[in-house]
């Protein structure tokens, strides 16, 4: 699963992840993710911190409260130590600073999936 409000970035990341075997469902904001019961079956989540309706950390906290057990990677242009600590407390596997290289995201996801599946 991918949540990124910038259309161009979202499309580029979707193509990257699909090229690596992920079946990607993408969203431009957090609200539709929370409303979609299928979001709880996603094995991976790549989410931007700054979303129009809710930040990425709070989104993952909400999903975890509903039983989501997947791997989360937070991408952000606003990385601070307090944000990194909040992301870790929410259960993110990694926080990646924007701009980033494709390899950074793929390395954060590498080894954290048993087989290609919904992202």
Automatic annotation (TrEMBL):
Entries under InterPro entries matching the protein: Bact_response_regulator, CheY-like_superfamily, Sig_transdc_resp-reg_receiver
Limits of the Response regulatory domain: 1-113
Presence of the UniProt keyword Transmembrane in the record: no
A Pfam family it matches: Response_reg
GO-annotated biological processes: phosphorelay signal transduction system
Modified residues (4-aspartylphosphate): 48
Keywords of this entry: Phosphoprotein
SMART domains the record matches: REC
The protein's name: Response regulator
Organism annotation: Stakelama tenebrarum
